[in-house]
Amino acid sequence: MVWIRSTEDNYVNVDNIISLTFDNKCNSFVAVVGHRDVRLQHKIYHYKPLGSLLQGTQPPTENEILEEIIAAIETARRANAPDILDFNKILDY
Question: Residues 11, 44: contact at Cβ < 8 Å?
């Protein structure tokens, strides 16, 4: 079982995730979790492009980051992978 650590120190089971998306209001990537008629968003990675711009590098696009998040989840589902994913540590931009 693989879990994702949110930026609020909550844990989200990847099997309960309905979608992964970018929320412009909080400038974060969120995992949408639902059960029946209730939908909750958990911030899983806060996007900070300013650091890359100040270093003189091009920050990754939202789609590139989403691809890396999905790839990390798929890799973690395989054997010998960490049970808890913390994207603030995994994605080092």
Answer: no
